[in-house]
Every structure is written in structure tokens, then in C-alpha cells.
């Protein structure tokens, strides 16, 4: 078992026996102090006897409650109350025996004390049962919350995988079209393109198992993609990078940057006879609510156009995956300014 999966100290504590011993010890101390006798040694002995008997009876009662399910979903009072009277009677009889053993025979006389003793022990076992039922209810709530959280995490992971499955085929379909267009013109270039595509497929398969990957790995995949497109567009595709080295370890959703670069190539390079400049930059932004933010910007020369259906799927999925993988602070913005189209991805900085 690795340290990450080792239960915490609190999780390893047996809370049932901890509270059992603490509660009955406290009762023994209470009866010793308020026993109403100058014979402290005898009173303390009887108090300890009563608490030991109460510990044994309450543990047996605990087994009955578990086996019969009388405290499973709230206390079944029609079964519990008669049992509590029986427990009080047995405990009272046990303490009376202790009195007769420890005290002279004339200490207990008459039965005037009996209702009070029965009522006292009935109250003790009633309080024990109520606390036990409350502890069970609290544990059920905690388990339900943990199960709900687990199901939410599984649901989020499944949704991320589904979105990833939509993005990857779309990208590879475009890449294979590029290979097909080139294979009859330049076989060596086509072979190089296939090598780059194999690297991209490896990245997609490996990164698909994680919600985020290092920015450096995502940049390697983008460079491989751009190498493919560079063979296709030659001088029409002009790319520059501005990435701070200290940001390369930051986690980003896999293929998210790829989607933005692909969009810039499709609507910047393909639609212009002169091609397009593409700038890829990453920088730290002002903290949002105390959280350090990473901004990744992909800019291309041209005008903002209404994306086609396939690219709309990619951009919509990129937004959803950012929210799922990085939280509500993450976002994706498209804007046009001074002859450039900017796609800016903002996400909390995380290792």
C-alpha cells in the first residue's frame, strides 16, 4: 500500500470502543463521586462494577441492534423500549448483587430504592441507544456523501473521455486528408508526415488516460501537428512560439491547445492565398480569487469567421473539457483585433 492510499490515523481508530470505554468510565467516575457514602472504596468498586456490567450489556445490545436491524433506519421503538426495560432490570439486579457482596446485609432494606435504580439504568441505556442511532445516521450520511462524490467523479471522467473521443477522430481525419493530398506529390514528405502523425497518435492515446497533461507534452504534439501542416502549406504557414520555460510543467487538458491551433490553421492559413502568421504564447495572468491563472493564446492573422460544424464541435468540446478538468474559473474566448484573431484559453495554474 502506497502512502497515498494508507488510511489516516483518525480512520484507523476504532471509534466504537473508544466511545464505549470513555462513556462507561465517565459514568463510573460520576457514580463514585456522587455515590452518597463515606465508604469511597466500596462506592468506587460498585461504580466500576456497574460500568463494567453496563459495558458488557451495551455491547450485547449493540449486537442485537445490528443483527435485527432495529437501528438501521431510525429506531424501532416498539422493539427497543421493552428491551431497554429488560436491560435496566438486568443491570439493576447486577448492581444489587454487588451491594450485597460489598456492603453489610442491612445497607439495602425495603424496595423504595428500586424504582429510582430502574429508572436510572433505563435512562442510561436509553441515552446509549439514542447516541448509537445518531452515530449510525451520521455514518450513513457520510457514506452517502462519499458515494455521491465518487459517482460524480466517475461521471465527470466519463464525460471527459466522451469529449476526448469526439476531438481525436476529428483531428486525425483532417491529418489523414493531408497525407492523402501529399502522397502523390512527394512520397518522402508523405512518409515524414506519417511519422509525425504516429507521434501524435501516441500522445493522444497516452494523454487520453489523464484529465491533464504537462504543457510541454501538449506543445510537442502541437509542433508535430504543425510539422505535418508545414509540409502541406510550406511558406504559407508561419509559426512563432513565446512560452516561458517555467510554465511548461503546468497541467492542461490533453489536445486542448491542439484544437485552437487547428482552428487557426483552418481559418487563417487555408482561407488565404498568402497564408497566415500563427503566434502561440503562454503567460501568467492576474490571479482570480487568489488562484494563479495560466493564459494560453493562439493568434492568427485574418478575420473572425463563423466556424464550420466540425470546428464548432472542437471549440465547444474544448470549453466543456476546460470546465470539467480545471473548474469553473477556466474559460475560452475568441476575439478579433487589428487584423488578428485571438483564441485565449484561461485556466487555474496547476502542476
What's a quick, concise take on this entry?
The chain is α+β, with helices and mostly antiparallel strands. It has helices at 9-12, 15-33, 40-68, 77-102, 114-183, 187-207, 215-233, 256-269, 309-326, and strands at 213-214, 237-243, 251-252, 276-288, 291-301, 331-337, 340-348. A 5-stranded mixed beta sheet has the order 2-4-5-7-6, with helices on one face. Strands 1-3 form a two-stranded antiparallel ribbon.
Instruction: Note the total helix count.
Output: 9
The span between the termini is 24 Å
Shape annotation:
rod-shaped
The profile of the biggest β sheet is:
5 strands, mixed
Helix content: 55-70%
Quickly give the structural class: alpha+beta
The total count of strands amounts to 7
| Cα radius of gyration in angstroms | 36 Å
Contiguous runs where pLDDT drops below 50 for at least 5 residues: 1-6
Could you state the order of secondary-structure elements as H and E?
Answer: HHHHHHEHEEHEEHEE
> Can you list the strand order of the major beta sheet?
2-4-5-7-6
Provide mean pLDDT, rounded: 77
Strand content: 5-15%
Amino acid at each position: 500500500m502506497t502512502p497515498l492510499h494508507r488510511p489516516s490515523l483518525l480512520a484507523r481508530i476504532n471509534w466504537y470502543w473508544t466511545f464505549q470505554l470513555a462513556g462507561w468510565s465517565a459514568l463510573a467516575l460520576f457514580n463514585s463521586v456522587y455515590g452518597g457514602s463515606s465508604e469511597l472504596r466500596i462506592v468506587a468498586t460498585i461504580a466500576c462494577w456497574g460500568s463494567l456490567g453496563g459495558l458488557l450489556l451495551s455491547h450485547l445490545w449493540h449486537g442485537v441492534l445490528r443483527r435485527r436491524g432495529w437501528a438501521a433506519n431510525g429506531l424501532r421503538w416498539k422493539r427497543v423500549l421493552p428491551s431497554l426495560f429488560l436491560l435496566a432490570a438486568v443491570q439493576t439486579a447486577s448492581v444489587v448483587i454487588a451491594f450485597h457482596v460489598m456492603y453489610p446485609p442491612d445497607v439495602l432494606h425495603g424496595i423504595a430504592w428500586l424504582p429510582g435504580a430502574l429508572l436510572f439504568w433505563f435512562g442510561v441505556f436509553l441515552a446509549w441507544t439514542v447516541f448509537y442511532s445518531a452515530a449510525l445516521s451520521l455514518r450513513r450520511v457520510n457514506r452517502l456523501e462519499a458515494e455521491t462524490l465518487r459517482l460524480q467523479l466517475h461521471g465527470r471522467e466519463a464525460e471527459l473521455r466522451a469529449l476526448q473521443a469526439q476531438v481525436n477522430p476529428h483531428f486525425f481525419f483532417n491529418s489523414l486528408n493531408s497525407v492523402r493530398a501529399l502522397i502523390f506529390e512527394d512520397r518522402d514528405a508523405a512518409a515524414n508526415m506519417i511519422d509525425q502523425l504516429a507521434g501524435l497518435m501516441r500522445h493522444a492515446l497516452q494523454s487520453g488516460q489523464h484529465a491533464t497533461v504537462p504543457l510541454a507534452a501538449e506543445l510537442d504534439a502541437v509542433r508535430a501537428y504543425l510539422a505535418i501542416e508545414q509540409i502541406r502549406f510550406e511558406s504559407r504557414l508561419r509559426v512563432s512560439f513565446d512560452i516561458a520555460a517555467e510554465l511548461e510543467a503546468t497541467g492542461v487538458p490533453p489536445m486542448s491547445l491542439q484544437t485552437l491551433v487547428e482552428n487557426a490553421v483552418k481559418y487563417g492559413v487555408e482561407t488565404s492565398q498568402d497564408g497566415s502568421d500563427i503566434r502561440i504564447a503562454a503567460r501568467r495572468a492576474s490571479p482570480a480569487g487568489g488562484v494563479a491563472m495560466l493564459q494560453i493564446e493562439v493568434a492568427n492573422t485574418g478575420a473572425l469567421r463563423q466556424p464550420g460544424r466540425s470546428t464548432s464541435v472542437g471549440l465547444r468540446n474544448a470549453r466543456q473539457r476546460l470546465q470539467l478538468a480545471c473548474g469553473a474559473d477556466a474559460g475560452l474566448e475568441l476575439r478579433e483585433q487589428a487584423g488578428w484573431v485571438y483564441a485565449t484559453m484561461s485556466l487555474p495554474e496547476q502542476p
